[in-house]
Amino acid sequence: MRFGVLTGGGDCPGLNAVIRGIVRKGVNEYGCAIVGFRDGWRGPLENQYEELTIESVRGILPRGGTILGSSRTNPMKADDGVERVGECMRSLRLDGLIAIGGEDTLGAAKRLNEAGLNVLGVPKTIDNDVGGTDLTFGFDTAVQVATEAIDRLHTTAESHHRNLIVEVMGRHAGWIALWSGIAGGADVILIPERPFDVDEVAALIKRRHGRGRYFSIVVVAEGALPKEGTMATIGEGKTDEFGHVRLGGIGQRLEREIEERTGYETRTTVLGHVQRGGTPTAFDRVLATRFGIAAIDAAARGEWGKMVALRSMKIEVVDLSDALENLRTVPEEEYSTASAFFG
Ligand code: F6P
């Protein structure tokens, strides 16, 4: 058997652990050959690949990023994308392809599968918003990074009697903001699922001051939006091949609005790609390894059009279409755990 593997979309800690799991079990137990495509879907579109061996995946378990490279290339946007990916797979005599990615990469995997290609998926994203799975790897590491940052900001905010805003990642879902905010004891958390009113944010901060706490920590997901008509919204920016706007900047805009409304000095820290880089936590290494092993098992069984998933602590194989139907966003009851501590 011969299988291809690729990593697409924004990278995240744990990708190398998945690749290692696929190669180690694939070669040792199934005696198969594994081809690693370069830079997501650009690899099969442009015939960019390398043979992966036990040797080539040694030492990569704790390494962040992806040894294969990644990109936001959308094969469905490329001229003859389906034919080119299919032709590449045939020329390499692949029995199938394992695509490791988030909603965009997996969406392309699903459409290629519907077009007749043998593709299955492994869910990844620090945003933790892929449906069909309880968790994606990379999320735990991102939450850890953001929580450490909030802890550090707390002490300096208190010394200087300032409001400090922390902008974290999270395009459609506020999981990183919510979890790091709960873990770090944030005074306000703003997420994409719940448009916010900046007057209410200012009122919470003032209430804290009234109780003798002269600093506040506001955690905001980069995809959070103000309620219509309450604050100027972000103008259209650059979009990627999947039509997503490049986010960032909500923290700075909030900074001005909060300072104006409360009269207290307010400053912003944008964590950005720091959350995506570096070594994965032990939890992410284990989850990613379990996904890698389950993916090569599913490929060996020929379970195409599927995705490996974590459900109630067990690894399962689900339909790609089930996973992609609905993004996994923050439900109201989980947000209310955090909001009990606001202000
Ligand atoms: O999808 C993960 C993610 O980190 C989002 O939280 C963020 O909006 C996006 O990727 C940023 O992507 P890029 O690094 O390509 O700008």
Describe the structure.
The chain has a five-stranded mixed β-sheet with strand order 3-2-1-4-5, sandwiched between helices. Helix 1 (about 15-30) links the parallel strand 1 and strand 2 (about 35). It contains eleven helices and eleven strands. About 50% of the residues are buried. The chain is of the alpha/beta class. About 40% of the residues lie in helices and about 15% in strands. The protein binds 6-O-phosphono-beta-D-fructofuranose.
Unreliable residue runs: none
- Please tell me how large the radius of gyration is: 22 Å
- List how many beta strands DSSP finds: 11
Listing every helix as H and every strand as E from the N terminus to the C terminus, the arrangement reads: EHEHEHEHEHEHEHEHEHEEHH
Helicity range of the residues? 25-40%
Our count of helices gives 11
**What is the terminal separation in angstroms?**
59 Å
Strand content: 15-25%
* Spatial ordering of strands, largest sheet: 3-2-1-4-5
Mean pLDDT, to the nearest integer, reads 96
Shape summary: elongated
Biggest sheet layout: 5 strands, mixed
Structural class: alpha/beta
Bound molecules: 6-O-phosphono-beta-D-fructofuranose
Question: What is the compact description of this entry?
Answer:
Helices cover 39% and strands 17% of the residues. With 343 residues, it is α/β, with parallel strands linked by helices.
